[in-house]
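Subject: sequence -> structure tokens, single chain

Hey, anyone have a minute? Need the predicted structure for the following. Not urgent.
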Amino acid sequence: MTLNGGAYGDKRFFHSSVLRAMMPIPGRDRFNDDATIRWGVGIKQFDIDGLSEEAYGHPGASGSCVAVDPTRDLVIAMTRFEEGPGSFSDFLKKKSVMYKAILDSIKE
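Reply:
Had a minute. Here:
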């Protein structure tokens, strides 16, 4: 729906102006003053993992994550039963490996 401006098929769930209001705002972070981290309504704009500068989603501290990259017309959703052993930084490294594999497979 976010890639289609709030619609899915012939159904409109919200107006594209609502979507723009939900998107991340540079310099607005509920956790710290790092301007590179941008949050909207539960949506974070990504600056890592090889996604475009337009990519957004949620990085998934609970062991699941979703990313939408409008530049590539790509949606990545990953879930797991539990976080598993290791730290959150281990999870982020594994997530980066998965993203890289996906992006490498679609490069032209």
